[in-house]
């Protein structure tokens, strides 16, 4: 009923529903399984009608990109959605700029799938440096000069599983490298296109799509130019040169325990992924209970967000190795039970 009302009355009705806590809960209940998937990759879905923009990556001293994730499936229904009828909504069009920071906006559906596409495009041209979309499975790139010193890259990502496999569509994916261009003090984007070679049954460099393999584009970046220029040589390692750095977790005095208080962030993220991806809800709860990590008051409102916080608390208390052992133990137990059956 809510989706039908939004379809009939448009963005104003969507905004009305987003103002009400119960209506928002009903609207986002459809994303329950996706939220579990997204939480495992530490990319939580905003459930208030806004975009998600907490992920920031520094490229050089005072130069960073911020990834803005838009939910283009907000009013998708079980029936086949018509192009031009979807909505992002006014809340998701809010994209906050900052000096020294350029925005990379990601969404599933291309712009022409939205009823509010014209308004959304105005915000993108004014705020974003890169817009990446999927859904239509045909890789393409278009760099638009919005005004002097301001560019927008529109990138259609392609897909590893297209609807058809022929001369037009092929299995494809891209590796995208973001970097700071010292000469122009701008965001540089290098596209490493990969496509399936059916004769050799393998992915290879794609010199046809996206301007060719390894195509590097320097984009006019006004938010970089507004900041104090970094000294030459302050570039942060990117791409294959990037080495995961251990992140020190600062412990409150009452929680600090003997042992090493440094946890490698890459190891933690990998275990976080396995915890949510590979364990069932019951297995996850059992692991947390066996580690005495669940306060009684949390049991009535146990969510994926709560589980994520409890995992971080376990790492803070120098019990990361115990957590890893418990995850392995749960997976081994499940395999043993399956083999016995």
Structure description:
- This protein has about 350 residues and is of the alpha/beta class.
- The protein has two domains: about 55-235, no CATH class; about 245-340, no CATH class.
- About 30% of the residues lie in helices and about 25% in strands.
- It has ten helices and twelve strands.
- The chain has helices at about 1-10, 10-20, 20-30, 30-40, 115-125, 220-225, 265-280, 280-290, 305-315, 320-340; strands at about 50-60, 65-70, 100-105, 130-135, 140-145, 150-155, 170-180, 185-195, 200-205, 215-220, 245-250, 260-265.
- The strands form three sheets. Strands 1-2-3-4-6-5 form a six-stranded mixed β-sheet. Strands 7, 8, 9 and 10 form a four-stranded antiparallel β-sheet that branches. Strands 11-12 form a two-stranded antiparallel ribbon.
- β8 (about 185-195) and β9 (about 200-205) form a beta hairpin.
- α4 (about 30-40) packs antiparallel against α7 (about 265-280), α7 (about 265-280) packs parallel to α10 (about 320-340) and α8 packs across α10.
- Mean pLDDT is about 85; it is low at about 235-260.
Q: How are the strands ordered across the major sheet?
A: 1-2-3-4-6-5
Order of helices and strands: HHHHEEEHEEEEEEEHEEHHHH
Terminal Cα span? 45 Å
Query: Which structural class matches the secondary elements?
Result: alpha/beta
Share of residues in helices: 25-40%
> In terms of per-residue confidence, which ranges show pLDDT below 50 for 5 or more consecutive residues?
237-260
- Can you give the mean pLDDT? 83
> Helix count, per DSSP?
10
Beta-strand content bin: 15-25%
Shape: globular
Q: How many domain units? A: 2
Count of beta strands: 12
Radius of gyration: 23 Å
């Amino acid at each position: 009923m809510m989706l039908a009302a939004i379809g009939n009355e448009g963005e104003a009705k969507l905004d009305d529903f987003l103002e009400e806590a119960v209506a928002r809960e009903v609207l986002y209940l459809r994303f329950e399984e996706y939220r579990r998937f997204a939480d495992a990759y530490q990319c939580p879905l905003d459930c208030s009608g806004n975009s998600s923009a907490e992920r920031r990556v520094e490229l050089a001293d005072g130069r960073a990109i911020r990834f803005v994730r838009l939910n283009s499936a907000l009013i998708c229904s079980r029936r086949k959605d018509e192009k031009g009828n979807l909505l992002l909504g006014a809340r998701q069009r809010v994209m906050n700029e900052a000096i020294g920071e350029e925005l990379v906006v990601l969404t599933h559906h291309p712009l022409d799938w939205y009823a509010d596409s014209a308004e959304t495009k105005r915000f993108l041209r004014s705020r974003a440096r890169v817009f990446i979309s999927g859904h239509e499975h045909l890789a393409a790139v278009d760099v638009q000069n919005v005004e002097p010193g301001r560019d927008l890259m529109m990138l259609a990502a392609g897909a590893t599983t297209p609807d058809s496999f022929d001369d037009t569509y092929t299995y494809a994916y891209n590796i995208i490298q973001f970097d700071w261009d010292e000469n122009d003090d701008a965001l540089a984007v290098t596209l490493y296109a990969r496509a399936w070679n059916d004769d050799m049954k393998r992915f290879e460099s794609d010199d046809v799509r996206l301007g060719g393999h390894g195509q590097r584009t320097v984009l006019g970046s006004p938010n970089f130019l507004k900041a104090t220029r970094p000294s030459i040589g302050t570039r942060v390692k990117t791409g294959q040169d990037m080495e995961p750095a251990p992140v020190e977790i600062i412990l409150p005095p009452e929680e600090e325990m003997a042992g090493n208080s440094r946890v490698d962030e890459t190891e933690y993220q990998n275990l976080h992924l396995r915890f949510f991806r590979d364990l069932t809800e019951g297995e996850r709860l059992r692991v947390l209970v066996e580690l005495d990590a669940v306060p009684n008051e949390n049991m009535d409102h146990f969510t994926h967000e709560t589980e994520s916080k409890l995992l971080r608390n376990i790492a803070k208390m120098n019990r990361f190795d115990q957590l890893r052992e418990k995850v392995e133990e749960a997976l081994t137990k499940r395999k043993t039970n399956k083999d016995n059956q």
